[in-house]
Structures are given as C-alpha cells and as structure tokens.
Amino acid sequence: MAVELNHIIVPARDKHASAAFLAGVLGVEVGTAWGPFVPLALSNGVTLDFLDAERFHPQHCAFQLSEPEFDAAVARIRAAELPYWADPFHRQPSAVADRFGGRAVYFDDPAGHNMEILTPAPKPS
Fold first, then answer.
1. Are the beta carbons of 15 and 51 closer than 8 angstroms?
2. How far apart (Å, rounded) are the C-alpha atoms in residues 109 and 26?
3. What share of the chain is helix, strand, coil (3-state, %, to 5)?
4. Nearest CA to 106 among 123, 82, 125?
5. Which listed site, 8, 23, 31, 84, has its alpha carbon 20 to 30 Å from 114?
6. Given strand 7-12, what is the order of strands in its sheet?
7. pLDDT tens-digit profile of 73-124?
8. From CA 47, how far away is CA 45, in angstroms rounded?
9. Do 28 and 18 contact (CB within 8 A), yes or no?
10. Could you give the C-alpha distances from 53 to 65, 86, 124, in angstroms and in order?
11. Residue 57: pLDDT band by 50, 70, 90 thresholds?
C-alpha cells in the first residue's frame, strides 16, 4: 500500500466559521460535521478536519488550484474585501506573487492560520 495523507486536524476558535470561510474562498462545500470535527474535503481525498480549540499555534496551509480556480478564488477574496498578500510574511499587500511562472496569494483565516493558494509552475523542459 502506498502512503497517502488522509487528513489534517485544523484547530480553530470556531470550527464552523473557519470551515465555512475556507470553503467560500476555495469554492468547495463544507462536509457534514461528525464527532468534534467539521470536515472540508479536497479533490485529492485529503480532508481538513476543523476542531474547536482554545489555544493553538497558527499553521500554514497551501492549496494548489488550476488557473481558472485561482482566478475565481482571488475574485472571491477581493469581493469580500479580505486582506491578502503576495508573500507569507505579509509584506506585499494586495498583490499576487509571480513565482517561476506560477502565481500565489496568502491570506489569514478567522483563526489566524496563514493560508496560501497557488497555481502550479510550468515544469522545465
């Protein structure tokens, strides 16, 4: 059996709000809550399982999108007037990064996690 990532637990102050926020940006559906988790399923089979927590360290999560999906996500971020940056340290506000032919945007979720959306860079020939 090949090793695959199945899920990641994402702590949040409000698991429902954080899951809904990210689902809205990514254009995906929030899954049905089960036990203490609110899942957000990704197309590669991995789920982000949001869990209420009082204390946690903010994490970084990056999501690879197709070019049209990236454009739609950035449009949703701008329409919601959410702050976003071209770098993970939040030094380049309201900009989209161009990295090796791919693009990236960083934004914070309601729990303070540093989220990134990016497009694949072309493979060298």
1. yes
2. 12
3. 20, 30, 50
4. 82
5. 31
6. 7-12, 47-52, 37-41
7. 999 999 999 999 999 999 999 999 998 889 999 999 999 999 999 999 887 7
8. 6
9. no
10. 29, 29, 43
11. very high
